[in-house]
Amino acid sequence: MRAAVVGTGFIGLVHVEALRRLGIEVTGIVGSSPERAAAKAGAHNLPEPYESFEAMLGDERVDVVHLATPNHLHYDEVRATLAAGKHVVCEKPLAMTSAQTVELLALAEASGLIHAVNFNQRFYPQNLNTREVVGQGDLGDVRLITGGYMQDWLLYDTDWSWRLEREQGGDLRVVGDIGSHWLDLVSYMTGLRVDAVMADLTTFMPIRKQPVGHVETFATEGGGETRDRAIETEDAVGLLVRFEGGARGVVTLSQVSAGRKNHLHWEINGTRASAAWRAERPEELWIGHRERANEASLRDPGKLQPFAASHTTMPAGHSEGYGETFRELYRAVYSAVAAGEPPAEPDYPTFAAGHEQALIGDAIARSHAEGRWVAVQR
Ligand code: SOE
């Protein structure tokens, strides 16, 4: 099986590395500029980059296309990839609107090809394990799901990314970029879909200083020539959630929280026990009890539930982290590719998960605009 990766930013190269660790040959990358792509290919010992997206699609050796491009490109790129008869792994958000995501979902399902959205956070072993223990009732009925996802890479008005440009990133920035991870993850772990939301979106910096040159995600050097640019998307979000069956959620999302680098965290309170986890300490899981002492456990392949155990390789005490979540997500996706058809019950996030987050995004935007609870329209 061979893959090509479109997008040579921070995350595109995480895709490349994970694929290589699985023994999937990366035939090449496609960049937004030939020079940047050539520099990245050289630095990572990759073959000559493709001259264009179209040239990559024309390469018969490519079985799977990974899209790690700015959000506004996903819709056309997914359509072209499916039309070329290639399987597709797309970064989140799947597209710019729910009208687009529903169309992509229908096209992908009709194609018989494998389709996945890169909700990698599910593939931390402790998160996979939590899904299994919640499913077997160890926490009891889920009542509260709290937490959030906070970062600081857009803290200053001099921080810049294409994600700040509405035409490239979409109407919802924080929600689409990191809120979708949190919401996808907690629904995956608890099996509970979001029924309704009450959202408060804030843009603390309505004007930012856009560098005149190219900037990569998480780049902090700054210092060059800039121009003022109006910002129409949110820096932070407060979200109340009603899950199906009555569970409640309280969530904070932010890209402007000093010191928080990649602070995805959740706590689940059930009728029997609680569990809590944070992405910056991904090996650790906290279990809370009422009648006995609480537990703090470290990832240990021998002690995990079966599916979680099948997605971890290092012995206990030998840390795994962010990079492994991509590898394990692709392990699941490429098993389906090897099988030749989509599984009846995919064990990885498909375009259905991408569409689900687009629908929740619609409800969040409407709730904020109208100042009221809004049900997710499915
Ligand atoms: C930037 O906010 C970002 O790279 C996200 O786009 C990723 O999905 C997340 O894994 C890390 O932060």
TrEMBL record:
Keywords: Oxidoreductase. Pfam families: GFO_IDH_MocA (PF01408), GFO_IDH_MocA_C3 (PF22725). Residues 1-119 form the Gfo/Idh/MocA-like oxidoreductase N-terminal domain. This is Gfo/Idh/MocA family oxidoreductase. SUPFAM superfamilies: Glyceraldehyde-3-phosphate dehydrogenase-like, C-terminal domain, NAD(P)-binding Rossmann-fold domains. PANTHER family: BCDNA.GH03377. Transmembrane segments: none annotated. One of its GO terms (molecular function) is nucleotide binding. InterPro entries: Gfo/Idh/MocA-like_OxRdtase_N, Gfo/Idh/MocA_oxidrdct_glycsds, GFO_IDH_MocA-like_dom, NAD(P)-bd_dom_sf. Residues 130-275 form the GFO/IDH/MocA-like oxidoreductase domain. It comes from the Bacteria.
